[in-house]
Write a structure and sequence with these properties.
Length: about 220
């Protein structure tokens, strides 16, 4: 039986807990212990009937406990996964039973694939990638570390999405496009040509409306 906790008690953290419960119902040998959260005011309370055990420091000396990453924001996710790794713990890779993932898909540590997602073939998801409900990812696509794909987004084949990029709800990326690292793509946007790093883009077709300095995500 594998002990597991979820970091984060917000909406996505509770969704990750639901994934764990659905995996348990399928027969996966997971023992859910409770939640972790950086907000000390939540410690020793309960969420979904389970305790909020503490912050990330609770993992100190508990390297056998897996962590479900319940943080969707790429910037915060990067920070928390770094702290978890420094404590010697590992993030769980979780795939909902109602997701469809092809045989030739590489899933990095800490990746989360939600119900209704479809990920076809010859695809790589690096560390901490989130594929939310009812998303599709086409052939020969690479999503780098900490990418978050919001519900209903569609990624065509031969796409590359850079580290830390946040794809909005119902957004779409056309085949063969490269999206740079630490991009924020608005809900419903359609990317028909390459986007540079560190920008916000919205609309159909997606247009850059904001540029950020290199390293903004480390602030």
């Amino acid at each position: 039986m594998q002990d597991i906790v979820v970091f984060g008690t917000g909406g996505f953290g509770r969704e990750v807990h639901q994934i764990i419960e659905d995996l348990q119902a399928r027969g996966d040998a997971l023992n859910f212990l409770g939640f972790l959260d950086g907000n000390a005011n939540l410690h020793n309370t309960q969420v979904h009937g389970f305790p909020v055990l503490g912050g990330v420091e609770w993992l100190n000396g508990r390297t056998d406990v897996l962590v479900g990453m319940g943080v969707g924001n790429p910037k915060a996710k990067r920070k928390m996964m770094g702290q978890i790794a420094e404590l010697g713990a590992r993030c769980a890779t979780l795939v909902h039973p109602l997701a469809w993932v092809g045989n030739r898909v590489d899933l990095g540590e800490g990746s989360i694939v939600c119900a209704g997602a479809m990920i076809t073939t010859d695809i790589r998801l690096d560390r901490g990638v989130i594929i939310n409900i009812n998303c599709t990812v086409g052939h020969d696509t690479t999503l780098h570390d900490y990418v978050t794909v919001a519900p209903g987004a569609t990624i065509s084949g031969n796409v590359v999405v850079g580290e830390g990029t946040d794809l909005g709800t119902n957004s779409a990326i056309i085949q063969g496009v490269t999206v740079g690292e630490w991009v924020i793509l608005g809900a419903g946007a359609v990317v028909s040509k390459d986007l540079p790093a560190n920008v916000t883009a919205v609309g159909i077709p997606a247009k850059v409306i904001k540029e950020r300095p290199i390293g903004w995500h480390q602030e």
